[in-house]
Design a protein that fits this description.
Elements (H helix, E strand, L loop, with lengths): L2 H6 L4 E4 L8 H4 L6 E6 L3 H13 L6 E6 L11 H17 L19 E5 L2 E4 L8 H11 L12 E2 L3 H12 L6 E2 L20
Parallel strand pairs: 1-2, 2-3, 6-7
Antiparallel strand pairs: 4-5
Length: 202
Amino acid sequence: MNASIAFNKVKAIVSRGGRTDLIEENVLRKIITPSLFIVGEKDDLIIKFTKRAYKEIINTNSKEISIIPKTSHFFEEPGKMEEVSNIALDWFKFHILENEKPFVNNYKIKPSKTILSFFNPFSFKLKFQVKFADRYSAGFILANILNKYKNKNNIVVIGIPRGGVIIADVVARKLSLQSFNILLSKRLRNPFNYENTKGRQQ
């Protein structure tokens, strides 16, 4: 093998808040180099792009995503750029230098768990986020959680327009209630940031 070719071969990649959405899928699938993606926890859009790129890179035997806690896109928070530098250095050492200790990703994405914590018979806290297909589906799941209150006489279901009415209807039906109440509410607008909603007075 030509020495210059071996010297110029890319052995490791680190993307720091990179715009991976600008890379086509067919290009991502050609990447065989060990790739590390470093993203700030507050950088939601880049996290989304990075996860997509991570999924498409299928021909490398080493890839990682590191989410730096409490950090924005440019890693401007105190001490965060140092954290980025250290984890990038560890990645390069492991993949470029010989006889180095294994790379440890202390910022790896952890799988979320479904946990429901009930504090009283009528309130619960969800420790995870779920994107429902529609409001009916959300109401159906909520009704299943509240199923132990079915056929009870002292149960009141209240729906808040707009979407809350659909959910309340599903819950009331599943709990065998004859009706449910509706609570009307009105948003208080910020006088310095008016929303462009239909029918707003000029």
